[in-house]
Design goal:
This protein has about 230 residues and is of the alpha/beta class. The protein has nine helices and eleven strands. Helix 4 links the parallel strand 4 and strand 5. It is elongated.
Length: about 230
């Protein structure tokens, strides 16, 4: 799952992003309101951690814009303000949760986990499935129900296969894959897409599934599941 952190305190943003990545979330960071809004409007984020006091545009303004655009990402407001009216203002604009500074990093992680893993019925499942495949989040393992074979799959390979399985039999463009798996600012690494698809294909072959990632000339790729 992908998180956008909009926080102008560089030290704090580094600590929060690092801790969330240990939870196996993919985290992008924006350090000002303008960039934060641009990234949030992409609609690719499952959750946004949004500071209120930001250079360029404050968090309440960003929240209003993304809700006006019908973007339904979960939003946790993060701010030094603790007055009741500030919290009510955030909830009125469409925030899901509110944490005041200073805070315990583990509290923030716990709230993120609640919103992303228990926010609705589908998020409570520990796996994503497509055809005879199940991709387990807690163990980072891929299982083929037909053969009973399993294999470990981690990091970018996991995120790539998860995205394909969530959109089985649908064509995904290279740009869509880059944004979902590598993020907005990782062009150099995302150029390795073909290599990572090759790695994932080998994992699919190893577990014995008939599902496969097919290249669609001029369009992108799709996971074919019968």
């Amino acid at each position: 799952m992908r998180i956008l952190l909009v926080e102008d305190e560089l030290g704090l943003s580094d600590v929060v992003a690092s801790r969330l990545r240990k939870e196996r979330y993919s985290v992008d960071v924006s350090n000002n309101g303008i960039d934060g809004l641009d990234n949030a409007l992409s609609g690719i984020y499952d959750l946004i951690i949004l500071d209120v006091m930001l250079p360029g545009m404050n968090g309440f303004e960003i929240l209003k814009e993304i809700r006006n655009e019908k973007i339904d990402s979960k939003v946790i407001m993060l701010t030094a303000k603790s007055m009741l009216e500030d919290k009510l203002h955030g909830f009125d604009k469409g925030a899901n949760d509110y944490i005041t500074k200073p805070f315990h990093i583990e509290e923030l992680v716990a709230r993120v986990n609640v919103w992303l893993r228990s926010g609705n019925e589908t998020m409570t499942k520990d796996y994503v499935e497509a055809g005879d495949l199940k991709l387990y989040k807690s163990t980072s393992s891929l299982v083929c129900e037909t053969t009973g074979e399993s294999i470990d799959i981690i990091c970018k390979e996991f995120l790539l296969l998860e995205y394909f399985m969530q959109n089985q039999n649908q064509i995904l463009s290279r740009d869509q894959i880059y944004e979902k798996v590598w993020g907005m600012d990782s062009e150099a690494e995302s150029n390795n897409l073909e290599a990572y698809i090759s790695f994932v294909r080998k994992k699919l072959k190893a577990v014995g599934t008939k599902a496969n990632i097919k290249a669609v000339r001029g369009f992108g790729y799709k996971l074919e599941v019968k």
